[in-house]
């Protein structure tokens, strides 16, 4: 799922990139958490690879803004903050809104709407059963479908880069804010309706409002959420 949206760098070592994608999926789910040290030898043992591909994987994580290297100290999971959330979201809003409008205005919009609806149904079913991981995964699949249907390749690349870091913040919403998740389900239903009808202006407006509302809701409680472990208990 995640592999479909990570930047595709053909000149990278395949094994290193494969390890990087796996690590990125874990980091997005806050395991390991922000600020944790990524110890090369431990990661090599856990993934059964030598140091060369692991170093390539760590360089890719840095390139994707999921890790930061501190000279003489090593590589650490990139921190999360209100400022970083603000920076990412102010970029995401116009990109996401434009992509949604282009998809709605494209001749394939009825077929895209059906694919998106199947993902939304999976999200709703997972929410009803309390399966947060499945709900988050279904949302990633829905966004992958939407971004993949966007006919502008430059926009698709920019969205892929910005959304990778933003997914860590979205994961917090799924873990700790059921009321925001309900809003997202309703807003995505409205977005799909706009795409099905071919209404680019409506798709743009719904997307812009949805991302903005989720952002404002999250930024107020972000410091609290970051003090919690992924299962909702108080972090040590």
TrEMBL record:
The record ties this protein, via InterPro entries, to:
GntR_C, TF_FadR/GntR_C, Tscrpt_reg_HTH_GntR, WH-like_DNA-bd_sf, WH_DNA-bd_sf
List the PROSITE patterns hit by this protein, alphabetically.
Answer: HTH_GNTR (PS50949)
- Which keywords does UniProt give here? DNA-binding, Transcription, Transcription regulation
Q: Which Gene3D superfamilies does this one have?
A: GntR ligand-binding domain-like, Winged helix-like DNA-binding domain superfamily/Winged helix DNA-binding domain
Give the matching Pfam families: FCD, GntR
Q: Does the keyword Transcription apply?
A: yes
Give one GO term, molecular function aspect: DNA binding
The protein's superkingdom reads Bacteria
Chain ranges of the HTH gntR-type domain: 13-80
PANTHER family, alphabetized: TRANSCRIPTIONAL REGULATOR, GNTR FAMILY, UXU OPERON TRANSCRIPTIONAL REGULATOR
Q: What name does this protein carry? A: HTH-type transcriptional regulator McbR
The scientific name of the source species is Roseisalinus antarcticus
